[in-house]
Amino acid sequence: MSEHSANLSSTVAATGRPLAVKAVIPAAGLATRFLPATKAVPKELLPVVDRPVLQYIVEEATQAGIGDVLLITGRGKTSMVDHFDRRPDLEARLEEKGDAERLAAVRRPSELAEIYTVRQPEQLGLGHAVGYAESHVGDQPFAVLLGDEFVKLSEPLLPAMLELQARTGGVVLAFFEVDPADTKRYGIASVEPAESELTDIGEVVKVTGMVEKPKPEDAPSNLAVLGRYVLPGKIFDAIRRTKPGSGGEIQLTDAMELLRTEGTPVHAIVYRGTRYDTGMPLGYLQTVVQIAAERDDLGAEFRSWLAEFVKADAAGGSGT
Ligand code: UTP
């Protein structure tokens, strides 16, 4: 038994509450910040080096012990599901060629988790999308992983969130610190210290409220909401009772806020690890560069090219 699964079992024994075993990945959004690339290709399938963003996200769930993943998809997004299917024709060709490495890479997505899908017929907001998970998830706690964001696999966040949710039974969020001047780009939380302890990956705080995209002078903190949530099953009832909010959309934040005001505890982990945001061109480019630079197979060559490029750029050349 791994150290992580040993911790998980002791948590279940200590609280009597089960850990979330299912994940939901809402990926039905229109991805307007990445147009025109995302007109025909879902942003979740944009490659980071040689794997689509969505594979990193499913790997993050799998690493946390989750083997059941529900993708919320929409029009033009069915290719996302194909990535997690087998490709016997391709596999046969690679087998013939004796290319064991690529064969393993092609098979890997289909071996990660059980993938299920449901369609959100109209893009009426993140809360609305999560609502479509109800018949798959039932009344058990579950994780939500947004389809355009992931964390470094060697600095895992989700296991600590799952354990915290099993302890509190409430809503568990994750925050990251932003430059105070940038608060208007994010959902920002007001918090107070939690009596509880530190996790391996960051401090635990109690959430007292959330504001969408406040101006720096109105922001209650510099803690921004990261796209990972662990939610109790009662969120579905709260979503049903949530009216359209900001942008006319049914917001998950509003449904969580409804639960909080009715007494459900809301905690968060202030994540100290590395977060990648692939939802818009700049964050996507930064992600590709960081991950490429760390790859065993091409990192060294890429880093030396990059260093040359930056040097030439600083000296006024194009570097290419
Ligand atoms: P975003 O706010 O990033 O929206 O949604 P988006 O459509 O993906 O991208 P932009 O802002 O237009 O560029 C956060 C997450 O919620 C999902 C998205 O797919 C994304 O993973 N989502 C959002 C849905 O599944 N359905 C919706 O109706 C809205």
What do these coordinates show?
The chain is an alpha/beta fold. It has 2 domains: 3-279, Spore Coat Polysaccharide Biosynthesis Protein SpsA, Chain A, CATH 3.90.550; 280-320, no CATH class. It is 37% helix and 24% strand. It contains 12 helices and 13 strands. The strands form 3 sheets. It has a 9-stranded mixed β-sheet. Strands 2-3 form a two-stranded antiparallel ribbon. The model is unreliable at 1-11 (pLDDT under 50). The structure holds uridine 5'-triphosphate (UTP). Residues 26-34, 72, 120, 123-126, 128-129, 146-148, 279 line the site of uridine 5'-triphosphate (UTP). GO terms for molecular function: UTP:glucose-1-phosphate uridylyltransferase activity. This is UTP--glucose-1-phosphate uridylyltransferase.
